[in-house]
Amino acid sequence: MKKAIGIDIGGTKIAAAIVSETGEILKKTEVKSDPSDREKMFTRVIEAVNQVLLDTTYNISDMEGIGVGVPGKVDRERGIAVFQNNLPWPQFPLMARIREQFGLQRITIDNDVYMAAFAEWIAAKGKNDETFVYVTISTGISCSIIHNGTFLRGAGFAGELGLIPVFSKVTNTLKRLEEVSAGPGIEKFAQKQLQLANLSAKDVFERYKSMEGKYQPIIDEVTDNWAQGIYSISSLLDPHQVVFGGSVIAHNPFLLEIIVEKLKSYQIPEQNHLLSNMSISTMMQNNGVIGAGLRVFEGN
């Protein structure tokens, strides 16, 4: 059985897993990020790899390679983390540093959402003659497109769904989708509307599920914003499948039904095939490390 290490790097934590060529996680670990300094951050990556191998029968030499998902813009060919909002790694030569540290030649790096999308596409048995979209809704909002078995990357920044402006029926303004309807945006909006300090996005969804009526307008606003964003995907790409992931929606699967109902008001009949082809990831927070590990086996 071939194995690889998949790494999913974020501003708050780094997840690492030993992944089989069939996408099974054999072991997973997490360590805290340290974005205060570029070298301290890289040291945490090393710690994550060493920790995931600890107390196993595997050595680094048993791995086919290492796949790494990084936020922001990535130069895949040169293996450089180009730009991130939440890491101290502008123009950081991540591939070369990992290769130097662990001695493995096969190192694959890509944007973290693309890595997660690859895992979801494999799990959904995506077809090479179809268009597949993965949408993540968490502390940020983004998407990745796989068309005819290949990522659609544009000039390198395609899939930034969170940058699309949406119209708020509550505030009568245009705002970027991520600003108003990712996790932090939901918290800010709910706190302002309900005049409640320290209200988290998790609180909003739990209290809504507990039938607290004052949270209904918050859910209506947020899901309507998402529906506007999804409709832009529907109109531009007409995808065959859309899979949603990220902590906000993966932990609240009831939201999908609301999104579908909202989307119905935007779609024309020729677009309605999408309504029955949207789903929520069953991998929860593991799709990033699984996808990173599986990308190592591409071409093998």
From TrEMBL:
Signal peptide: none annotated. It comes from the Bacteria. Pfam families: ROK (PF00480). InterPro entries: ATPase_NBD (IPR043129), ROK (IPR000600). Belongs to the ROK (NagC/XylR) family. This is ROK family protein. It comes from Bacillus salipaludis.
